[in-house]
Design brief:
By secondary structure, this protein is of the alpha+beta class. The protein is built from 27 helices and 26 strands. The relative contact order is 0.10.
Length: about 750
Amino acid sequence: MGKTASEQQLIIEGAGCASCVGKIETTLKNTHGVDRAEMNFADRTVLVSGTAETEALITAVESAGYNAKALNDSHGSDGLDEKDAADWAYYKKLIRDTVIALSLGIPLMIYSVLIGEMTVETTTQRIVWLLVGLLTLGVMYFSGRHFFVGAWNSLKNHSANMDTLIALGTGTAWVYSMLVVFIPDVFPLMARHVYFEATAMIIGLIDLGLALELKARGKTSEAIKRLIGLQAKTATVIRDNKEVHIAIDQVLLNDVIKVRPGDKVPVDGVVIEGHTSIDESMLTGEPMPVGKAQDDEVVAGTLNKSGMILFKATRVGKDTALAQIISMVKRAQNSKPPIGRLADVISSYFVPVVMIISVLSALAWLNFGPEPALAFAIVSATTVLIIACPCALGLATPMSVMVGVGKAAEAGVLIRNGEALQTASKITAMVLDKTGTITEGTPKVTDIILANASDEKPVLQLAASLESGSEHPLAMAIVESALDQDVELLKIEGFNAITGMGVEASCEGKALLFGNSKLMAKNEVGIGEYAEKAQTLAKEAKTPMYFAVDGQLTAIIAVADPIKSDSVSAIKRLQANGTRVIMLTGDNKETAAAVANKAGISEFFADVLPEEKANKVQELQEQGEEVGMTGDGINDAPALALADVGFAIGTGTDVAIESADITLMRGSLHGLADAIAVSKATLRNIKQNLFGAFVYNVAGIPFAAGALYPFFGVLLSPVIAGAAMAFSSLTVVSNANRLRLFKAKDH
């Protein structure tokens, strides 16, 4: 039997820029047993799906010239504690490296500014600069070794990355300077300039930039940390009639757990004793506590506000809703929107192109530049290599995605992948299911009009018995109405749900039919004057259903499903933002019209079968609309899957949630407007980052090559290029973190 496919996360070490991302992903995708590999350059992690062993994945990454290790998925921390510790250690190392490099670089810079040219003309100067050169070599070893190791690994793998550019730039400056020290007579007098300060300063400034970037990057994972922080560390379990305090990962299925006021719910379960109110705001964004009593579900990470309850564990460990949410958010943060893939493609060509430009720049100075041409050639080539490092370009997209997805999660909106995040910003038409989406989804029986019967109770008994086999909200309303009246349900046989029409079965030898007019027509049941009565009920926003026994219409049972208290305001928000809102329902036209009118929707389609919902979505797409579909039922799954972006109401069915791209953890449609707002803000942030990073790289190269020299006699210093390159990454990270301050408009 083959190994089951699973997801693994690796921490990547040695990835310096965006060009590394494509190489690591390609190498992993070509590894046997790997179905998908997506690297998050901002987080320096890669998510791999498939059957490949962890050792094989690590070996593959190492063969590409990088280091990798498994991110231990320890329960309760999801491996983040380990990663935070590693990041903190790396941060301290970078700060140490910065201090070492700048301790030499800054005095040399001050000397060059205050004293004058750093040239080699006398024996004394040769000895002094030889000592400085050896000290610079020490800086290159202790503070810049990771650049040179990375460059060597890339060279062995026939590729180039940021490390290649930095190693070439600083290495060239040092080698040239040492040649001037050892054999000064070979160089013209004007070219006997040493650049040790450039090497030390560039390494120091880039290390400082990496350290500051790492610290700022840590803020982007705060949403995940907050979600993980919701998880209780221990649980009070009743075993052998005794209370036992155990670690969360020791809780077993069907354990009975006690939760006192003020405690967090440790795992998912069903209340078996007691009643309380639970604060679910940390998961759903809904501020009002929710009452819980026997048979109600409770979710891990929520807070018990008042009473004490006992509940039975139904989902533990990675199966809890909170664990699934964390997994979904992490997966989305690792995924790339289409705009990010474009940046990766550009980056993969960028480094080789920069190296070519650097060589051409040097050749131009050697052949056409003034004296000392060789010195100018070295400076321009080094500056081009340093200023063009595409670090910021690689960070532009993943940084924004991480913050945007985390921000959405805090608002109770779970985004499955980066593509959905980008596409949601372009939605022009939003299709809404009616039952459970616009309405509460908990309808009540309002009317029973008898046609071929004299007593309501036997009719309700048969109808409820028949509907007890259905999971539709309308069916459940009829069953609940019967149970409220202490009506005993009867045994049914041959239950059959007829898609888009209703249900049929037999009970005590009687053939039962319950559904809409299409079902009656199909079975040749006459409804006569009762069609008009059904229409009247429908105009009151009630759903009338025909009930027939042995081929004779027996009654019309009407059910009303109230519109959610905030559906109208949420729909107005969508419309105010220019989104075309359309309602789809399998309900009859009159009921649909009444609900649409109350909800403020001008476009609706009624009597729509499940497969027709998908067709309506396709029709809108053919009209050129970017279509979002929102639903909560099994019958919505095909349309959710077909839509450009599918939104599932988190209170709905698992099938609907699995078919959707975005899940709204609370039942409110305000989540739609919030999701679209976060999506637009994130995409805007990505574009700002990409524009800033790309324009910086492209615009910086001509200046580095010496474009200003013919006009102003100025040649950009490699030190300035190093500082600019380091802080460009920091600028991108800071801009991405601005998203953390984003707030959607008030509801």
